[in-house]
């Protein structure tokens, strides 16, 4: 193997998280990926047009991915939303507890002028497999995209989302919620590049960490030359329920254009003592208070899901939700 091939292979095993690197000792610039060869990709392509689109909020297009056993697989999903069309896609991805190996899912979105697209991702990877989910999106003039992500226990998961707002008045909104416990590890990298005039982005993240869970969130809003009048906001709210959790957050705003507005903020910590005392004084135990507020963070995002069936299933108690979801012991990709 030549030195160049070795260099290319080593580069393929690294995921660049930040467009502008920070201090190396923070270990937030890149993420090492498992060096495992993946089987040939299974692909799904769906095009939505204004005249034929049936994937509305009332009747979304559904994709179900489920894995078990030793896996080394890659899936590719592509969604094209033509001019003026509206579509909603529900992506439900999960794995059994005994799952091991590596998984890669790539989701590509292209929204033409005036298109509106909602992507709901429900992710529950309980096994030991390393999972990488890449989302890439390009939005034209007046196109709109809403991304709703729920991470309900991720053993080794990395989500990489990159959005290009190339069109004038294009808009991207993400609402992400996560509930991590035991030894869960979740890495989230969101990069929104503003190129269109008056483009708008909002990144909202809320989560709960307990046990020995680890979370890394990198959120970048990148204002490029020519995006005059653009606005970008990113916020994160994290509830720490145990002392041994690891919570790392790095919000980044890059600016090459003068007439823009960018804001970022994060609230990370344990429950306010005054609020805890207030609720305990009304008969709630400390554990019940934390569980109630943890659930409230998830439900705030769940209630934004436009599909009633998905929303009601996720609002069920965990045991009932598992029964409603059903089980599947073989790898599968189903679309309806």
Textual characterization of the structure:
The protein is an alpha/beta fold. It has one domain. 15% of the residues lie in helices and 50% in strands. It is built from five helices and 19 strands. The strands form three sheets. The protein has a nine-stranded mixed sheet with strand order 18-16-14-12-10-8-6-4-19, covered by helices on one side. Strands 3-5-7-9-11-13-15-17 form an eight-stranded parallel sheet, with no helix packed on it. It has a two-stranded antiparallel ribbon with strand order 1-2. The longest helix has 17 residues. The protein is globular, with a radius of gyration of 20 Å. About 7% of the residues have low confidence.
Summarize the structure.
The chain has five helices and 19 strands.
How much helicity do the residues have? 10-25%
Content of β-strand: over 45%
Q: Label the structural class.
A: alpha/beta
Total domain modules: 1
The strand line-up of the biggest sheet is 18-16-14-12-10-8-6-4-19
**Gyration radius, in Å:** 20 Å
Segments where pLDDT lies below 50 for 5+ residues? 4-12, 319-332
The shape is globular
List the helices and strands and how they pair.
Blueprint (H helix, E strand, L loop, with lengths): L2 H10 L1 E3 L13 E3 L9 E7 L12 E7 L2 E12 L4 E10 L4 E12 L4 E10 L4 E10 L4 E11 L2 E9 L5 E10 L4 E10 L5 E10 L4 E10 L7 E10 L5 E10 L5 E9 L3 H8 L5 H17 L5 H8 L2 H8 L6 E4 L1
Parallel strand pairs: 3-5, 4-6, 5-7, 6-8, 7-9, 8-10, 9-11, 10-12, 11-13, 12-14, 13-15, 14-16, 15-17, 16-18
Antiparallel strand pairs: 1-2, 4-19
């Amino acid at each position: 193997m030549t030195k160049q091939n070795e260099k290319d292979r080593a580069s393929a095993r690294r995921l660049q998280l930040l467009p502008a690197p920070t201090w190396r000792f923070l270990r937030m610039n890149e993420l090492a990926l498992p060096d495992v060869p993946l089987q040939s990709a299974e692909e799904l392509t769906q095009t939505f047009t204004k005249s034929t689109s049936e994937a509305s909020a009332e009747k979304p297009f559904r994709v179900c991915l489920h894995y078990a056993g030793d896996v080394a697989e890659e899936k590719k999903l592509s969604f094209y939303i033509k001019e003026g069309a509206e579509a909603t896609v529900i992506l439900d991805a999960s794995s059994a507890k005994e799952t091991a190996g590596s998984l890669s899912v790539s989701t590509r979105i292209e929204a033409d002028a005036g298109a509106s697209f909602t992507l709901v991702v429900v992710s529950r990877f309980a096994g030991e497999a390393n999972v990488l989910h890449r989302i890439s999106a390009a939005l034209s003039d007046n196109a709109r995209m809403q991304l709703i992500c729920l991470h309900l226990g991720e053993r080794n998961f990395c989500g990489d989302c990159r959005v290009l707002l190339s069109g004038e008045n294009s808009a991207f909104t993400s609402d992400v919620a996560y509930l991590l416990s035991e030894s869960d590890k979740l890495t989230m990298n969101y990069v929104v590049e503003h190129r269109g005039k008056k483009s708008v982005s909002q990144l909202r993240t809320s989560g709960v960490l307990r046990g020995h869970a680890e979370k890394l969130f990198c959120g970048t809003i990148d204002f490029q030359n020519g995006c005059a009048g653009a606005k970008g906001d990113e916020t994160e709210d994290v509830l720490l329920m145990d002392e041994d959790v690891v919570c790392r957050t790095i919000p980044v705003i890059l600016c090459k254009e003068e007439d823009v507005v960018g804001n970022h903020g994060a609230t990370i910590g344990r429950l306010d003592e005054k609020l805890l005392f207030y609720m305990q004084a009304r008969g709630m135990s400390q554990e019940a208070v934390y569980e109630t507020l943890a659930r409230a963070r998830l439900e705030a995002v769940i209630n934004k899901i436009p599909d009633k069936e998905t929303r009601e299933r996720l609002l069920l108690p965990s045991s009932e939700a598992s029964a409603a979801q059903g089980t599947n012991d073989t790898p599968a990709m189903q679309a309806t």
